[in-house]
Amino acid sequence: xxxxxxxxxxxxxxxxxxxIIVVNKQVGEIVQGDKTGDTPLSDMVKQYIxxxxxxxxxxxxxxxxxxxxxxxxxxxxxxxxxxxxxxNEMFRTNQVRKTYWAIVPTSPACQPTHLEHYLLxxxxxxxxxxxxxxxxxxxxxxxxxRPIASNDHYTLLEVDxxxxxxxxxxxxxxxxxxxxxxxxxxxxxxxxxxxxISLCAHSVDFVHPVTHAPIHIEAPLPTDPIWSxxxxxxxx
Length: 236
Fold this sequence. Notes:
By secondary structure, the chain is α+β, with helices and mostly antiparallel strands. The protein has one domain (12-219): Pseudouridine synthase. Helices cover 15% and strands 33% of the residues. The protein is built from four helices and eleven strands. It has helices at 41-52, 81-92, 168-175, 226-229, and strands at residues 12-16, 20-25, 62-63, 72-78, 97-105, 113-122, 127-131, 139-150, 154-161, 199-207, 214-218. Strands 1, 2, 3, 4, 5, 6, 7, 8, 9, 10 and 11 form an eleven-stranded mixed sheet that branches. The protein is globular and about 55 Å long. The termini are far apart.
C-alpha cells in the first residue's frame, strides 16, 4: 500500500495496513474517551486515517485493548469490523503475547518469578488488591517477570502478561514488594516528574487477524531519561 502522509499530531504509528493500526501511546494520553473530556488516542488515530488517506465521512476504528493513562507503549486498533471481531477473540483467548518493561526498586525479589494472585477491583478507589487465595469477586491473574538490567537503585524487569486484569502488573508487583517507580497508588515513595509510572507496553507478538502473517512490534524507549541508563554501553 502507498506510504501515508505524516501524522497530523505527535502520534507515532508503529505499524499499519488495511485492517489494523498500531501506535505508540504517550504518557498522559487516554485510549478511549472518559469523563475528563480529554481528546482520546482513538480520536487522534481516526483523524490521522482520515487525513492520511483522504477518507470521506466517518472513519471506522475499533478499540481492542487499553493502557492506563500514566503508562506508555503499544496500543492496537482495528480498522475493519472483521479485524475487530478477530482481535477481540484473540485477546480473550490469550493469543496476543504482550511484553511490558517496568522499573522497580532493586531488591532480592528481582529474580525470575511466576506470579499468580487473585485480584479484587475497587471501583471507587480505581485500584485493585491482590490476594494469595481466591476470595469472593476476585479474578485470577498471572504473569512472569525477569530482570534484564539493573543499577544500585533500580531494576528493569521484563514482564510477560498472561491475563488482562485491572492494574494487574502494578498491583501484583507491588504485592511482592516491587512497586513500579512513580506509582504512588501502589506504594512508590515518590512520583515521576512527568506524571508517568515507569511501565511501558514494550512489544507485542500475534498472528495477523486477516492475513495470518506473524507480527512482532516493539515500541521505542519512553522519553524519561532513566530508561536509557539501562542501555548505555559499558565500553569507555
